[in-house]
Each structure stands twice: as structure tokens, then as C-alpha cells.
Amino acid sequence: MLEFKRHRRLRQTANLRSMVRETVLKTEDLIYPIFVIEGETNKKIEVASMPGVFQISFDLLEEEINTITELGIVSVIVFGVPKDKDEVGTSAYCEHGIVQQAIKKIKQVNNELVVIADTCLCQFTNHGHCGVIEEGIVLNDPTLDLLAKTAVSQAKAGADVIAPSNMMDGFVAAIRHGLDEAGFAHIPIMSYAVKYSSAFYGPFRDAAHSAPSFGDRKTYQMDPANRLEALREAESDVLEGADFLIVKPALSYLDIIREVKDNFSYPVVAYNVSGEYSMIKAASLNGWIDEKSVVMEKLISMKRAGADLIITYFAKDVAKWLNEGK
């Protein structure tokens, strides 16, 4: 008789499989993105390219936070959709900007919820780029001052974590210095350390109204072909003071998540981006796949790759499914 290993012995029942499961997804792993619109009331607008994801007006924020809290989600990341935009994204660092207002409101509704502030200018500039523009070029160093101002204003509003997503060189150092100088040395930075110039971002730009009006973001976001560059970017951010490292997108970059996890002893965050969400939603709505099974398999793959946390538009659905299984 042939000699071979009987791996199937550990797969015979659901309970046996659960006992030997190596990777587990928990509600506490999930970070839910919220889009808050300025200057509107009683508005809940579904993003056309992201079925099930909504822009909500400020007055509906309390209801949304209560729903998230009841589901057991412990963290949200806030994106603003401002009423006014200008060349330098003034409303990003305005004390009464939509993100700052939303942070204050969320903390009033549930002070225990971890509120992460996305820190970028692209939603607030009239050209849609993540920095100051001169003759069609995004200027690095002048942008750093505005990013630091934005982070400080978000911390003053009550943000628990600052998440800069702009990919300017030195952005973590500038924001860390700004926060420390303003008395917010205790506020951690969740850096978009490894952010690729990806075709998977299209639906997000519909949600946040942040598509660039000219050109693209390839001079500051990373080439999808590069692996070693990801490690250099993550190393810079660690040296400059980052406390979390985000890899964005997630699904096509599981190898990068694993490399970042293996090389740095910091929490790794996978950003399950809008295009990844919309593809599954579209396939599910057409009856081509089982949405729940595909989503859970996808998120488990991110955790297995090394992610400690996952930013995902599926967070509320996943929380419901996990709660049903308890």
C-alpha cells in the first residue's frame, strides 16, 4: 500500500475544522469608511458605482454611528465631501470643516469609538490633487505644511488616529512634528505607507468627489510593479514616526502585505479598496457569485497575508454575518 499523509482527518466536521483554524476574522479587525456631505440635510445618497455605500448628510450621522455601534464595529475612518473647494484645500484644515464637524459629532454619540481621520487635500482642492500645484506640478514641501495643519485641526476636533494618505515625501515626519508641537504627542499616525497608483480607486473618487481634473497621481503614488520600493516607503514612515502601516490596495498586493508584516513590527492595515468592493457587488447582483462566501474568503486572505486590521466597505455586512454566527 502507498504511504501518504491523511490531511483530511482534521477536516471531517465543522467543529473540528474550527478547532484547527489558523486565521480568524473578528469584528474588532474592521474599520468602516464614512463619507459625510457638507451643506445638505436629510440626504443619504447611494454611490452609483458602489451599491450599498452612501454619502450621508451631517444630520444623519448620529443614526449611522448608532447602527455601527450596535453591530460591534469599534473603529471608523472619516472622509469629507466639502461644499467649497479651492486651490490649496482650505476646508481640509478649517476648524469648522466637514471632517472636523463629523469627528466632534461622532465622539459625542459614542466617545469609545476609535475615530480615524483621513488626512489628505484631494477632496478639498478644486484640481483634485493631493498637494499644492504650480505649473501643473504637485509641490512636495509646501504641501507638508498644509498636511500638518490638517492633522492638527483633526486632532483638536477629537480624532483618535491621524491617517495621512497623500504620499508626499516626508509627510509622516511633518505631521508628527506638527502634532507634537501642538500638544498631541499621544495621537498615533496610521500612515498610508504603501499606496500604489491603482486602477481600483475609481469608485472611491465617485464617493469622495476627488478625481483629479488633469493628469494622474503617478508622480506621488507607487508603481504597481514595485516591491522593494514598498519596503523603502514603509521604512521611511517607521523612522519618521508612523504607528500603523497601511497597504493600499489589498487584494492584488497580498505579497506586499506579507513583506511589510515580516519586515516591520508595527500593526499592518489592509485597505480593501472601492474597486475590490464594487467588483464583488456587481458579480453578486448579477447572481454570478455568493457574496458572503466571497467576501469572507477575501478578507481572510488579507489577514492570512499578515493584516492586523482591514479598512473595508463590507464592514457592516461582515459584522452582521459574524454576529449571526455567534
From TrEMBL:
What cofactor is this protein dependent on? Zn(2+)
**What are the binding positions for Mg(2+) in this chain?**
E233
Tell me the keywords, alphabetical order.
Heme biosynthesis, Lyase, Magnesium, Metal-binding, Porphyrin biosynthesis, Zinc
Q: Where does Zn(2+) bind?
A: C120, C122, C130
What positions does the entry give for 5-aminolevulinate 2 binding? S274, Y313
GO-annotated molecular function: porphobilinogen synthase activity; zinc ion binding
List the catalytic residues: K195, K248
Keyword Membrane attached: no
Residues given in the record as 5-aminolevulinate 1 binding sites: R205, R217
EC class, as a word, reads: lyase
What pathway does the annotation place this protein in?
Answer: Porphyrin-containing compound metabolism; protoporphyrin-IX biosynthesis; coproporphyrinogen-III from 5-aminolevulinate: step 1/4
Q: Does the UniProt entry include the keyword Transmembrane helix? A: no
| Purpose | Catalyzes an early step in the biosynthesis of tetrapyrroles. Binds two molecules of 5-aminolevulinate per subunit, each at a distinct site, and catalyzes their condensation to form porphobilinogen.
| Family named by the database record | Belongs to the ALAD family.
Q: What is this protein called?
A: Delta-aminolevulinic acid dehydratase
Please spell out the taxonomic lineage of the organism that makes this protein: Bacteria, Bacillati, Bacillota, Bacilli, Bacillales
